[in-house]
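Design review, sub-item: ligand-bound model
Attendees: FS, YL, KQ
YL presented the inputs for the adenosine-5'-diphosphate complex:
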Amino acid sequence: MGKQKVFRKEQLKFMIFSFISFTVIFTIFGVIIFSQVKSTLFTQTDEELLSFKAKVSDVLPEEDHRPPRFDDNDGPQNPNERKGPNNPNPRIMMLHWNNEGEIINQNEIGTTIYESYFQDYELDKENVNAITNMTINDLYNFRYIVFEDHTEGDEVEYVQLLINTDPEQTILANFGKLIIICSSIFIILSISASYILSKRMMKPIIKSWNKQTEFVENASHELRTPLTIIQNKLELLLTAPQEKIMNKFENIALSLSETRRLSKLTSDLLTLARADSAESQLNKQPVNVDNFIKKVCNPYIDIAESQEKHVWLKLNSKIEIEADEQRLHQLLVILLDNALKYTAEQDSIGVKTYNEDHKVVIEITDTGIGISKQNMKYIFDRFYREDRARSRETGGSGLGLSIAQWIVTQHNGTISVSENQHKGTTFIVKLPKK
Ligand code: ADP
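KQ shared the predicted structure:
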């Protein structure tokens, strides 16, 4: 399967996943809000029903002493009809049922209403004391409670309190519609959000995939060249087994030098592979910068002298930093090796340290061939070499500065390159103080 196809498939997978997640979140959110509003709306009506029921029940015991449940002056015409509590709730309708399951306060609720809605209505004995919903004539919504309320002296067996919930139902229906519309809009919007997110998510993956592929290609290429040379030279040696080593000295020396290059290359590749997998851990400890640099530079003074180059040190930092000695050593070796590699006879190489704000600055400067301005931004890239032929001659593979940059970053520092004032290059490393 092509690379692009794999990426597209992964992007689609992520897009579908985020779209489903968004949809589930919006749906759950909508359901929670809807049920919360519903319960709040009906809590109010239920409280009204229960408080009215309490009032009805309160009236009864007192009235056992007298018949004022049946108000003589303005009470119902039927002597069996019971009067409700004072201050009745205008939203609540009260039905009195007798033992035969008939409504006996028809006059109180109004003959028209009774005949239109309650004539064929039956007492619900199954839901006694439970608040229940009902719809009359498929039009009007009520919540009601039925409770037993038998008192001597009247026919009433059950009382049913009904409260009209049409306003609540209308609010709820409108709110439900609103939630569905909003959720649908959000779900539609989430398609584009998922697309944008999936594209963004794939970007770094594609970038690192390409980088990795490039790295593997470059690495194999770098490994193949010395291997081919070694193979050729060894095959050549095999063709003349009787030959003395002295006569084949050049071939052997070249194979050896390519073997060394291979060994350095594999160890550099390993360092970078470990850096990528974040496997490499620093072992930091206090390091006196000036003393450490002096120690690392000492052998280079002799090497430089043998090449008729001059090394100078100006160490003025005089402080300690927290660093991994092994990695710091590797960093200085990379920069000093390069300085030696890219300088000629009579050139000079200098190492300078000083303090700046909260940082220690290490400058490694040379008067060598320098780096052209337009290439300076590439020199920390893996396998980048300004002059491939020359770099190969000096044994370079273009990995040194990538490793140097990784070491500095691991120490929370920075590394940069600039032109040396007159001629050559200056590398500036800034590391945080302790
Ligand atoms: P190499 O192993 O090829 O030296 P590096 O990553 O260390 O790889 O360096 C990358 C490139 O940067 C080199 O090939 C060279 O062109 C350039 N470079 C590094 N250091 C110097 C320097 N001191 N002077 C001039 N060019 C340099």
